[in-house]
Amino acid sequence: MEFDQVIRERYSVRRYRQEPIADEALDTILKAGMIAPTGCNYQPQRVYVLKSDEAIARIRELSRCAFDAPVVLIVALKESEDWKSPLEAGCRAGIQDVSIVADHMMLEAWNIGVGSCWVNYFKPSEVKAAFGLPEDETPVLLMTLGYPADDAKPAKLHEASKQPEEIIQYR
Ligand SMILES: Cc1cc2nc3c(=O)[nH]c(=O)nc-3n(C[C@H](O)[C@H](O)[C@H](O)COP(=O)(O)O)c2cc1C
Fold this sequence. Notes:
Blueprint: H1 3-9, H2 23-34, E1 45-50, H3 53-62, E2 71-78, H4 94-111, E3 115-119, H5 124-130, E4 137-146, H6 164-167
Antiparallel strand pairs: 1-2, 2-4, 3-4
Helix pairs in contact: 2-4
The chain binds flavin mononucleotide.
Flavin mononucleotide binds next to β3.
Protein backbone atom coordinates (compact mmCIF):
# COMPACT_ATOMS: atom_id res chain seq x y z
CA MET A 1 0.00 0.00 0.00
CA GLU A 2 1.21 3.54 -0.70
CA PHE A 3 2.31 5.36 2.48
CA ASP A 4 -0.19 8.15 1.84
CA GLN A 5 -3.02 5.62 1.53
CA VAL A 6 -1.96 3.95 4.81
CA ILE A 7 -2.04 7.15 6.84
CA ARG A 8 -5.22 8.51 5.21
CA GLU A 9 -7.33 5.37 5.28
CA ARG A 10 -6.39 3.95 8.68
CA TYR A 11 -9.01 4.19 11.37
CA SER A 12 -9.44 2.65 14.81
CA VAL A 13 -11.00 -0.78 14.36
CA ARG A 14 -13.28 -1.92 17.16
CA ARG A 15 -14.92 -4.96 15.52
CA TYR A 16 -12.82 -7.87 14.33
CA ARG A 17 -13.19 -11.05 12.31
CA GLN A 18 -13.04 -14.07 14.60
CA GLU A 19 -9.89 -15.54 13.16
CA PRO A 20 -6.27 -15.50 14.28
CA ILE A 21 -3.71 -13.19 12.71
CA ALA A 22 -1.28 -15.14 10.53
CA ASP A 23 2.06 -15.58 12.33
CA GLU A 24 3.93 -13.95 9.47
CA ALA A 25 1.69 -10.87 9.60
CA LEU A 26 2.08 -10.56 13.36
CA ASP A 27 5.81 -10.85 12.97
CA THR A 28 5.86 -8.09 10.35
CA ILE A 29 3.94 -5.80 12.71
CA LEU A 30 6.24 -6.53 15.66
CA LYS A 31 9.34 -5.97 13.53
CA ALA A 32 8.04 -2.55 12.45
CA GLY A 33 8.11 -1.61 16.13
CA MET A 34 11.68 -2.83 16.44
CA ILE A 35 12.95 -0.37 13.80
CA ALA A 36 11.19 2.67 15.24
CA PRO A 37 13.44 5.48 16.43
CA THR A 38 13.88 5.89 20.19
CA GLY A 39 15.93 8.38 22.20
CA CYS A 40 19.61 7.40 21.75
CA ASN A 41 18.23 4.14 20.31
CA TYR A 42 17.92 2.83 23.87
CA GLN A 43 14.75 0.89 22.92
CA PRO A 44 13.12 0.97 26.35
CA GLN A 45 9.88 -0.46 24.98
CA ARG A 46 8.70 -3.92 25.93
CA VAL A 47 5.93 -5.59 23.96
CA TYR A 48 3.80 -8.42 25.35
CA VAL A 49 1.71 -10.34 22.83
CA LEU A 50 -1.55 -11.64 24.26
CA LYS A 51 -3.06 -14.28 21.98
CA SER A 52 -3.77 -17.40 24.03
CA ASP A 53 -7.45 -17.96 24.95
CA GLU A 54 -6.52 -17.46 28.60
CA ALA A 55 -4.66 -14.18 28.04
CA ILE A 56 -7.37 -12.77 25.78
CA ALA A 57 -10.09 -13.68 28.30
CA ARG A 58 -8.11 -11.95 31.06
CA ILE A 59 -7.44 -8.74 29.14
CA ARG A 60 -11.12 -8.53 28.21
CA GLU A 61 -11.91 -8.65 31.93
CA LEU A 62 -9.49 -5.78 32.52
CA SER A 63 -10.53 -3.50 29.67
CA ARG A 64 -13.78 -3.23 27.79
CA CYS A 65 -11.66 -1.71 25.03
CA ALA A 66 -10.01 -5.03 24.27
CA PHE A 67 -13.17 -5.45 22.16
CA ASP A 68 -13.33 -8.80 20.33
CA ALA A 69 -9.76 -8.64 19.03
CA PRO A 70 -7.90 -11.96 18.65
CA VAL A 71 -4.59 -10.33 19.64
CA VAL A 72 -3.85 -7.56 22.12
CA LEU A 73 -0.41 -6.06 22.67
CA ILE A 74 0.69 -4.56 25.95
CA VAL A 75 3.22 -1.89 25.01
CA ALA A 76 5.20 -1.08 28.12
CA LEU A 77 8.06 1.19 29.15
CA LYS A 78 11.07 -0.20 30.99
CA GLU A 79 11.55 2.79 33.26
CA SER A 80 15.25 2.13 33.88
CA GLU A 81 16.20 2.12 30.19
CA ASP A 82 14.91 5.28 28.56
CA TRP A 83 17.02 8.35 27.79
CA LYS A 84 16.93 10.91 30.62
CA SER A 85 17.85 14.49 29.76
CA PRO A 86 20.89 15.95 31.56
CA LEU A 87 19.48 19.42 30.82
CA GLU A 88 16.35 19.47 32.92
CA ALA A 89 15.18 17.18 35.70
CA GLY A 90 12.25 15.01 34.77
CA CYS A 91 12.67 15.35 31.00
CA ARG A 92 12.89 11.89 29.51
CA ALA A 93 12.09 10.09 26.31
CA GLY A 94 10.21 6.98 27.46
CA ILE A 95 6.61 7.81 26.65
CA GLN A 96 7.68 9.32 23.31
CA ASP A 97 9.68 6.18 22.50
CA VAL A 98 6.80 3.86 23.29
CA SER A 99 4.40 6.03 21.30
CA ILE A 100 6.56 6.00 18.19
CA VAL A 101 6.99 2.23 18.47
CA ALA A 102 3.22 1.81 18.81
CA ASP A 103 2.53 4.11 15.86
CA HIS A 104 4.96 2.17 13.66
CA MET A 105 3.14 -1.05 14.54
CA MET A 106 -0.30 0.51 14.01
CA LEU A 107 0.61 1.79 10.55
CA GLU A 108 2.38 -1.41 9.50
CA ALA A 109 -0.67 -3.36 10.63
CA TRP A 110 -2.93 -1.29 8.40
CA ASN A 111 -0.45 -1.60 5.55
CA ILE A 112 -0.86 -5.39 5.58
CA GLY A 113 -4.61 -5.47 6.15
CA VAL A 114 -4.69 -5.78 9.93
CA GLY A 115 -6.82 -3.35 11.93
CA SER A 116 -5.88 -1.95 15.32
CA CYS A 117 -7.00 0.33 18.10
CA TRP A 118 -4.75 2.18 20.52
CA VAL A 119 -6.25 1.77 23.99
CA ASN A 120 -5.61 3.73 27.17
CA TYR A 121 -8.83 2.63 28.87
CA PHE A 122 -7.33 0.25 31.43
CA LYS A 123 -5.60 0.40 34.79
CA PRO A 124 -1.84 -0.01 34.23
CA SER A 125 -1.32 -1.44 37.72
CA GLU A 126 -3.93 -4.16 37.13
CA VAL A 127 -2.54 -5.14 33.72
CA LYS A 128 0.99 -5.16 35.13
CA ALA A 129 -0.01 -7.52 37.95
CA ALA A 130 -2.22 -9.77 35.82
CA PHE A 131 0.51 -10.47 33.26
CA GLY A 132 3.47 -10.49 35.63
CA LEU A 133 5.40 -7.55 34.22
CA PRO A 134 8.65 -6.80 36.06
CA GLU A 135 8.65 -4.14 38.76
CA ASP A 136 10.36 -1.49 36.62
CA GLU A 137 7.99 -1.77 33.66
CA THR A 138 4.85 0.28 33.16
CA PRO A 139 2.18 -0.58 30.61
CA VAL A 140 1.62 2.57 28.52
CA LEU A 141 -1.01 1.35 26.09
CA LEU A 142 -2.83 -1.68 24.83
CA MET A 143 -3.13 -2.25 21.11
CA THR A 144 -5.89 -4.45 19.77
CA LEU A 145 -5.07 -6.23 16.52
CA GLY A 146 -7.08 -8.31 14.07
CA TYR A 147 -8.64 -8.39 10.65
CA PRO A 148 -11.48 -5.85 10.53
CA ALA A 149 -14.98 -7.38 10.65
CA ASP A 150 -17.02 -7.05 7.46
CA ASP A 151 -19.18 -4.42 9.16
CA ALA A 152 -16.29 -2.55 10.84
CA LYS A 153 -16.31 1.15 10.10
CA PRO A 154 -14.79 4.34 11.49
CA ALA A 155 -16.45 5.76 14.61
CA LYS A 156 -17.75 9.34 14.65
CA LEU A 157 -14.60 10.28 16.59
CA HIS A 158 -12.61 9.51 13.46
CA GLU A 159 -13.73 12.78 11.86
CA ALA A 160 -11.20 15.51 12.65
CA SER A 161 -12.96 18.39 14.37
CA LYS A 162 -10.24 21.04 14.46
CA GLN A 163 -9.21 23.32 11.65
CA PRO A 164 -5.53 23.52 10.65
CA GLU A 165 -5.27 27.11 11.93
CA GLU A 166 -6.26 25.96 15.44
CA ILE A 167 -3.35 23.55 15.52
CA ILE A 168 -0.61 24.86 13.23
CA GLN A 169 1.06 28.22 13.74
CA TYR A 170 3.94 29.74 11.80
CA ARG A 171 6.24 32.04 13.75
C1 LIG B 1 -3.42 7.99 23.31
C2 LIG B 1 -4.64 7.35 22.74
C3 LIG B 1 -5.52 6.68 23.59
C4 LIG B 1 -6.66 6.05 23.08
N1 LIG B 1 -7.46 5.31 23.91
C5 LIG B 1 -8.55 4.69 23.39
C6 LIG B 1 -9.35 3.86 24.21
O1 LIG B 1 -9.06 3.63 25.39
N2 LIG B 1 -10.44 3.28 23.67
C7 LIG B 1 -10.77 3.43 22.34
O2 LIG B 1 -11.76 2.87 21.89
N3 LIG B 1 -10.01 4.21 21.52
C8 LIG B 1 -8.91 4.83 22.01
N4 LIG B 1 -8.11 5.58 21.20
C9 LIG B 1 -8.47 5.74 19.78
C10 LIG B 1 -8.95 7.17 19.50
O3 LIG B 1 -10.24 7.34 20.04
C11 LIG B 1 -8.94 7.40 18.00
O4 LIG B 1 -7.64 7.25 17.50
C12 LIG B 1 -9.45 8.79 17.65
O5 LIG B 1 -10.78 8.96 18.03
C13 LIG B 1 -9.34 9.07 16.14
O6 LIG B 1 -10.04 8.05 15.45
P1 LIG B 1 -9.32 7.13 14.38
O7 LIG B 1 -8.20 6.40 15.05
O8 LIG B 1 -10.40 6.20 13.89
O9 LIG B 1 -8.79 8.03 13.30
C14 LIG B 1 -6.96 6.17 21.68
C15 LIG B 1 -6.05 6.81 20.84
C16 LIG B 1 -4.91 7.39 21.36
C17 LIG B 1 -3.92 8.03 20.40
